[in-house]
C-alpha cells in the first residue's frame, strides 16, 4: 500500500510533484499516491481568478525552469537518467511542441511567457499525468491517529504527509472595504476588467515581485506619482549573474554557509528585490519614488488615506505620516498563511516537534533535507519556508525538479488505504 501525500494548492509545485510521481510509477518504482486539493482550479494563481495577476504580465524566471528543472534527479539508483528523460516529456518545450507553438517561440527570441500561458502549460502537464485533483478549499488541518486530516467544506481527506504551497490569499488589505485602498486581488480584478485607475498620488505597499507586476500595470493608468513603500534602505535590483542564479538552481553548497551568510544571500537575491528587467523598464520612469518604512496603520481623512510609517533615523525610532489618493496593499504574500488552518491538536504536534512555540522562525529553522519540519510525524512539507535551510530556489520556480525529488524521497511511513469521506456521511468513500 502506498502512502498518501496530499498537496494543498494545484500550482507549480503540485504539478511538479504529481508529474514526477506519475513517471516513477510508470517506471515501476514505489511512490506515494499524490492527491491535490485546490480551491479554484489548476494554476489558478497564474490567472485573474487567483487574484495575484491579470494573467497578462510576464514570468520573471525563464520558462525552461519548468516542472522538471534542473533535470538532475537523484531518486532511483542507476535509473536517474531515465527518470530525467521521461520528465522531459512534460517540459516547457514539450508543451510548446505539443501545442504547435515551438517554432514561433524560438523565432520570436524565446520570450518570457505571460502568466496565463504559464498556467496553460501547468494545466497541460497536470492533464497529461492525470493529476489526482480534489476540488475544495482546505479550511482546517487536524491530526487523526497518525495521519493528517484535511477538511474542506464537503470532504475530509486523510493523508500520511501534507505539502503546503502558494503565497496565501491576495485579498488582504490594510483598510478593508475602503474604495481608496485596494488589495492585490482588487487591483488585478480592476485591471482584468480594463477599468482605468485615475489618481494623483498612489502608494504601493511592498517591494517584491508582486509589487513589481503591479507597477508594470499601474504605469498604463492615469497616475501622477507612485510611491513604493518598503522597509529596505532602497529598492534593490536582484542579482542575476550566473553565480547568483546557481544558488537557486543548485543548492549543493547552501548548507555549508552560516545562517547570517544565507540570510544575506537571500536578501540580495530574493526578498523584496526587483528583477533587473523591472528596474530597467520601470524605475527609470520619474513618477516612481521609494519611501522607507513599515506601514503601521491607515486611516481615511479629508478624502485621502493617511499612512503611518515606522522607520528609524540613525538608530532612533521614527514615525511619519503620509497622505495618498489611492493605496494598493501589495504586502499580501505570506509564507505563514496556512497557520490559522491548524487545529489545536495539529499545533500541539508541531510544538512538540519544534520543542517550543510555533513561530515562523522556528518552522524555517527546522526544515530538513526533505523540505519537511524535522521531528514531526506525519510529515509536513513546507517548501515555501525551505529557502533558509535548504536553498533559496525551493520556495519559487527555480528548481521544481529538485523539490519533487526531495519530497517524494521522504519516508512517509507504511501507508494506508487512501480515505476521502464526505462530511455528511458516516462511512468513508474508498
Ligand atoms: C505575480 C507573481 C509573479 C511571480 N513570478 C514568478 C517568477 O517569474 N518566477 C518564480 O520563480 N516565482 C514567481 N512568483 C512566485 C510564485 O508564487 C512561486 O514561484 C510559485 O507560484 C509557487 O508555486 P506554488 O505551487 O507554491 O503556488 P501557486 O502556483 O501560487 O499555487 C497555489 C495554489 O493554491 C491554491 N490554494 C490557496 N489556498 C488554498 C486552500 N486553502 N485550499 C486549497 N487550495 C488553495 C490556489 O488557488 C493556487 O492554485 C511569482 C508570484 C507572483 C504573485
TrEMBL record:
Its EC number is 1.14.13.59. GO terms for molecular function: L-lysine 6-monooxygenase (NADPH) activity. It is an enzyme of class 1 (oxidoreductase). Its cofactor is FAD. Pathway: Siderophore biosynthesis; mycobactin biosynthesis. It catalyses: L-lysine + NADPH + O2 = N(6)-hydroxy-L-lysine + NADP(+) + H2O. InterPro entries: FAD/NAD-bd_sf, Lys/Orn_oxygenase. Keywords: FAD, Flavoprotein, Monooxygenase, NADP, Oxidoreductase. Belongs to the lysine N(6)-hydroxylase/L-ornithine N(5)-oxygenase family. This is L-lysine N6-monooxygenase MbtG. It comes from Mycolicibacterium duvalii.
Amino acid at each position: 500500500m502506498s502512502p498518501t501525500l496530499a498537496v494543498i494548492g494545484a500550482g507549480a509545485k503540485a504539478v511538479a510533484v504529481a508529474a514526477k510521481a506519475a513517471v516513477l510509477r510508470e517506471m515501476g518504482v514505489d511512490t506515494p499516491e499524490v492527491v491535490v486539493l485546490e480551491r479554484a482550479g489548476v494554476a489558478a494563481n497564474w490567472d485573474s481568478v487567483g487574484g495575484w495577476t491579470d494573467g497578462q504580465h510576464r514570468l520573471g524566471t525563464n520558462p525552461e525552469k519548468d516542472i522538471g528543472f534542473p533535470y538532475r534527479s537523484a531518486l532511483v539508483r542507476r535509473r536517474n537518467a531515465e527518470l530525467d528523460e521521461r520528465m522531459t516529456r512534460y517540459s516547457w518545450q514539450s508543451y510548446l511542441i505539443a501545442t504547435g507553438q515551438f517554432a514561433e517561440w524560438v523565432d520570436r527570441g524565446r520570450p518570457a511567457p505571460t502568466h496565463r500561458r504559464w498556467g496553460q502549460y501547468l494545466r497541460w502537464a497536470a492533464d497529461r499525468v492525470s493529476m489526482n485533483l480534489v476540488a475544495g478549499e482546505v479550511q482546517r488541518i487536524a491530526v487523526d491517529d497518525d495521519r493528517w486530516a484535511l477538511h474542506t467544506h464537503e470532504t475530509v481527506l486523510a493523508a500520511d504527509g501534507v505539502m503546503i504551497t502558494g503565497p496565501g490569499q491576495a485579498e488582504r488589505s490594510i483598510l478593508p472595504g475602503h474604495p481608496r485602498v485596494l488589495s492585490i486581488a482588487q487591483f488585478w480584478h480592476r485591471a482584468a476588467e480594463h477599468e482605468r485607475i485615475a489618481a494623483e498620488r498612489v502608494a504601493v505597499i511592498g517591494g517584491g515581485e508582486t509589487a513589481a507586476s503591479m507597477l508594470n500595470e499601474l504605469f498604463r493608468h492615469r497616475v501622477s506619482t507612485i510611491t513604493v513603500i518598503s522597509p529596505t534602505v532602497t529598492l534593490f535590483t536582484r542579482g542575476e549573474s550566473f553565480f547568483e542564479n546557481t544558488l537557486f538552481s543548485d543548492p549543493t553548497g547552501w548548507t555549508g554557509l552560516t545562517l547570517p551568510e544565507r540570510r544575506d544571500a537571500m536578501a540580495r537575491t530574493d526578498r523584496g528585490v526587483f528583477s533587473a528587467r523591472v528596474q530597467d523598464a520601470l524605475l527609470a520612469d520619474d513618477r516612481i519614488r521609494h519611501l522607507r518604512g513599515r506601514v503601521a496603520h491607515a486611516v481615511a481623512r479629508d478624502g485621502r488615506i493617511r499612512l503611518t510609517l515606522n522607520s528609524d533615523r540613525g538608530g532612533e525610532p521614527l514615525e511619519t505620516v503620509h497622505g495618498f489618493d489611492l493605496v494598493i496593499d501589495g504586502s499580501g504574500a505570506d509564507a505563514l498563511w496556512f497557520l490559522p488552518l491548524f487545529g489545536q491538536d495539529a499545533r500541539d504536534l508541531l510544538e512538540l516537534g519544534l520543542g517550543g512555540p510555533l513561530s515562523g522562525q522556528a518552522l524555517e529553522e527546522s526544515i530538513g533535507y526533505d523540505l519537511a519540519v524535522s521531528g514531526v510525524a506525519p510529515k509536513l512539507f513546507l517548501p515555501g519556508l525551505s529557502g533558509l535551510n535548504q536553498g533559496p530556489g525551493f520556495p519559487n520556480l527555480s528548481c521544481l525538479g529538485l523539490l519533487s525529488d526531495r519530497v517524494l524521497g521522504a519516508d512517509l511511513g507504511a501507508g494506508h488505504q487512501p480515505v476521502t469521506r464526505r462530511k455528511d456521511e458516516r462511512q468513508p468513500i474508498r
